[in-house]
Structure formats: C-alpha cells, structure tokens
Amino acid sequence: MTLSPAATLASPHSRNFNFAPYDLPTAVTHWTVAGRPALYFDATAPPPGEWTVVGANPPELGIEHDNSFRMAALSVRGKTFVIVIHGPAADFKQFLPIAVRLVASLTFPPR
Question: Distance between CA atoms of 75 and 69, rounded to whole angstroms?
C-alpha cells in the first residue's frame, strides 16, 4: 500500500456505523510487530453483511458480521503492510493472545 499506516487505519476506524450489539472500535493504539512500530485497533463487525477493512469496490478484505478483528498497519522500507487477525466474536478474546504471539514472531529480511 502507498498510504501511511495511520491513513490506512483512518478510513475503516472512523466509520459512523451502528455497531450494536457490539462496542465501537477501540482507539488506535501502538504495537510493535517484528521490531517495528505499528498502529492497530480492535473491532467487531456488526450485522448484517460484511465490514470492508481494506480496499473499496471491490473490497480487498472484508470481515463477516459477528467476527471480531485486530487491524494493524506498519511501514517496512517505505511500504505499508496491513495485518488483520480475525475470528468469531465469541472466541476472539481467547484466540487473540495466541495470534499476537504468532505475529510477534514475524521478521522482515534485510534488503
């Protein structure tokens, strides 16, 4: 992607949807991925339909309703990388720490 990590998260994070029965997306927060600074937020896609997180028409990545997700963006050598972890809302809190450890193991080779 050519957008900055902050700009990449701004569009899906700032939507004015009714998230009921779920909470609004969390604030954008800092995280370290593969030793690099990243930004992320957590949310749950509300019913009905699919929640687009990357792309527009057609979406490159969508999250089905009633699925929770963490969307992270980081810059590597001038390119923005997007990482999306998602799963059923009922299981997401238990699954997230495992997924975070897996993502923490990522490495980016030197040029």
Answer: 20
Interior angle at CA 108, CA 69 and CA 94, nearest 5: 25
Cβ atoms within 10 Å, residue 103:
17
What is the DSSP code string of 45-89? PPSSSEEEEEESSSEEEEEETTEEEEEEEEEETTEEEEEEEEEEH
- The one-letter amino acid code at 69 reads F
What confidence score (pLDDT) does residue 109 get?
82
b/e map of 61-85 (b: 16 or more CB within 10 Å)? bbbeeebbbbbbbbbeeeebbbbbb
Q: Are 100 and 26 in contact (CB under 8 A)?
A: no
DSSP class of residue 27 equals P
What's the CA gap between 76 and 94, in Å, rounded? 29
**Residue 56 has which token pair?**
């527009």
* Segment 6-17, tens digit of pLDDT: 988 887 777 767
